[in-house]
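Lab notebook, page 48
Experiment: co-folding of the full assembly
Goal: obtain a model of how the components sit together before planning crosslinking
Operator: M.T.
Materials (sequences as entered):
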Amino acid sequence: MTITRSLVPIAGLATGLFAGWVVFPTVLYTTVDQPVQFNHAAHTGNGAGMSCQDCHALGQDGRFAGIPGIHQCAECHEEPIGSSENERRFVEEYVQQNREVPWLVYARQPDNAYFPHVVHVHKAKLACETCHGKHGSSSGLRPYEMNRISGYSRDIWGSSIAGIKSQAWDGMKMDDCISCHSVHNNDRACIDCHK
Amino acid sequence: MRTVTTARSRYGMVIDLDRCTGCGSCTVACSVENNIPPGTENVTERTGITWMRVYEADDGKSFPDTHSVFVPIMCQQCGNETPCMSVCPQNAVEVDPATGIVGQIPERCLGCRYCMAACPYHARYFNWWDPKWPAGMEAAMNPDVAPRMRGVVEKCNFCQSRLHTARERAASTGRTAIDPADYVPACVEACPQRAITFGDLDDSDSFVAALAAGDRAFRFLSRIGTEPKVWYLSSREWVRNLSDRVVARTRKENVRG
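Observation: model returned without errors.
Model output:
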């Protein structure tokens, strides 16, 4: 009887921990597939040999172009080049109809966060991989995990719900920005990174 | 380990009241630049949002001897004992050490409006409602400025998004300091009279520093010692006297206080 009774709080604690650390993180995110599959590896390196900047350009005035528009894709893909079903669908549904692809951007930050690519690339000399990982050599687009409450991508918080990161690109919260800025920047102000 | 210290500057503004015609271009340009939605039907002087606001004053004489002056008032960017910053319980106001700009952080603001009471210039505004744009106008919003939500205070920040853009330009050409021509707030650019001058007050070569040091220059409520970084110019003595005079307030003004 006493043993059973002492088990109650332990069982409660276990249930609570399980709900908080396993159930909640699973329920918190919903998974959405990208509208079209895209193979970065086929375009970069040993594939077509393009660099990140060929499509994700930094303008003369320092503006970052982000994901290229359909016109840029159409420069090569006006007609399907390869034989993949994905490419055929992409050309028919988007390029030929001159329709932009509603990509789900893994690294999209909230509206109030200001991130200038040019300052990090030109002044701090950071490589794309430092923050974006091996995205450029991936052969497919993983499903986009969206936070059901905030609508933000899971990449912002990071894969570990406890906030423990093993890679620099795993999680891009304000704390992650500050952890680097507190080392490299003497003058820090909110307006440096908020708009 | 590489550590960067940003070039220090102290941005300020000089407004020539002898040139200002009160046309309101600065107010419109400011609202468009900073995603301030148009006032709703039931908005009052107390509840509307106008980061840049043009007041009218006169010399008290009766027609035809009377003279008027238009005074554009925005956040005066106090450089000493910044009243809004010292009262904020949330640390939602800060003075940027690199630029001297008094920044407002809406995400931290809890909406107590203590800063609005503390501000000697009535330059702070509260979002009583979520911002709402007439259909189609959202397409013209500035992507470089985040809209604010209901329940927070906002104010002029010398168009910090334009400072961001200027910094990006500098970085793209490998410069550390920004080109002063790249950083001009929207009101300065919009003024058809070129009554507003903007620049670094600490740069002795800058036009703004020369104007602020001139005989015509004055600041509002200089006696309270907040050291604003916005200067006004007038060669008319009665206008300069407005700056420190304790004037009888109109009923309208009392409502805002």
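Interpretation: DSSP finds eight helices and ten strands in chain B.
Next step: discuss with group before ordering constructs.
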